[in-house]
Amino acid sequence: MIKNYTDSLLQFLAGSPCNFFAVDSMRRMLLENGFKELCLADDWQLAPGSGKYFVVKNDSAIFAFTLGSKPMAETGVKVIAAHSDSPCFRIKPNAVIKAENGIIKLNTEVYGGPILYTWFDRPLSVAGRVILRGADALHPVTKLLRIDRPILVIPHLAIHFNRAVNEGNPLSKQKDMLPLLARVTECAEKDNLLIGLIANELGVQVSDILDFDLMLYDCERPCLVGLNNEFISAGRIDDLSMAHAAITAVIEGTDTTATRIAAIFDNEETGSGTKQGAASPVLANILRRVNAATGGSESDFFKAIARSFMVSADNAHAFHPNYSEKYDPTNHPVLGGGPVIKINANCKYMTDAHSAAIFRSLCEEAGVPFQYFVNHSDVAGGSTLGNILTSQIDIEGVDVGNPILAMHSVRELGSAFDHNAMTAVFLHFFS
Ligand code: ZN
């Protein structure tokens, strides 16, 4: 019997409107389960065999690990990787734009590759982090901000002004996609509208706000849909569902022999090229420090890497019943068919026959079905974390994910069964 984590996932998604809140949600889950937070800027005293720790980088990436009783050099490390970010709209500096008759709109910039159309006509709000004045210039203070009510909307242009709207309609990210914030009649209010709102929400002075990383999110809550509640309808399923499964596995996994780590990176949607992204040395450095703090030598580190295995978990495309021509004729995973192993001849995925065989066996041992994804040969696919990570750490691994529809829509569609199945496989890997 596989356990049901669907309610836990829905709660996690609802509490994680953007990458910073996703990491905060994971931090809370870890603290509630006896994990201790380590700081990258401090020395680490680690307890082999029983220690449970996590490290946060840039408030937007999180690495949670448990130490095995045996040295890393002997057992290798078990790694599950996922990402915290999702395509969205970021608020630009000097964002307030005054339009006709007191209508205020916000200037935004697109993050990653969202399906633009899906953001229209929805109650939206703002979440992210705000940077406040601290003791000195080099030590500002960070506060998370989530405005928990709908304050923005991107209204469609009426069909009467655009009769071709249903026939394919190119959208300008700068013109078509700016959200409306308010109608304001007092002139004085306009200039400070956004900063004043942030200050008010946080209970700080306007003059204390130095900067922010704020994103728009859809206020509608995640839910189950389908006659039998078989589908999950929510924003950010890619890749917070895999992050949730990875953190659940590091918390509930029972392997006390080998060191296990759930590595949740940021900025996958923009190519992973930041200090908290998979192309940075952050994971390699953490593993190196864990090895050193548990008495391992430099040579032990290389032995550990050679014996390690990584599951790189990012969502996959499910077969869309209305578009069969887009899919490979023999390898098109379906919603509810179980975890997906991703394969690409040109090595966009890190999967090879050896690593695929290992993941397949993990699925079989966990008692869940598995599927293969290969692109239709005339369709260029996306990329993901696995091979980007191997540029920093030459670890064996497999790219997997659960099948979803409407990837990068403001609301994606996944499967409750698949989430529970993937969590069961991760738990088995970590047990
Ligand atoms: Zn993804």
Structure, explained:
Helix content is 26%, strand content 26%. With 431 residues, the chain is of the alpha/beta class. It has two domains: 6-86 and 235-429, Aminopeptidase; 88-218, Roll (Aminopeptidase i, Domain 2), CATH 2.30.250.10. It has a nine-stranded mixed β-sheet with strand order 1-2-3-13-4-14-18-16-17, with helices on both faces. Strand 2 and strand 3 form a beta hairpin. Helix 6 (237-252) packs parallel to helix 11. The structure holds zinc ion. Zinc ion (ZN) binds next to helix 6. Zinc ion is lined by residues 83, 238-239, 268, 314-315.
Short structural description:
The protein has 431 residues and is of the alpha/beta class. Helix content is 26%, strand content 26%. It starts with 5 loop residues before the first helix and ends with a helix.
SSE order and pairing:
Layout: H1 6-14, H2 19-32, E1 36-38, E2 52-57, E3 61-66, H3 72-75, E4 77-83, E5 88-98, E6 103-111, E7 124-132, E8 141-146, E9 180-183, H4 187-191, H5 193-202, E10 209-218, E11 223-225, E12 231-234, H6 237-252, E13 259-265, H7 282-293, H8 298-306, E14 309-313, E15 316-317, E16 340-343, H9 353-366, E17 371-374, H10 385-389, E18 396-401, E19 403-404, E20 412-415, H11 416-429
Parallel strand pairs: 1-2, 4-13, 4-14, 14-18, 15-19, 16-17
Antiparallel strand pairs: 2-3, 3-13, 5-6, 6-9, 7-8, 7-10, 11-12, 12-20, 16-18
This protein binds zinc ion (ZN).
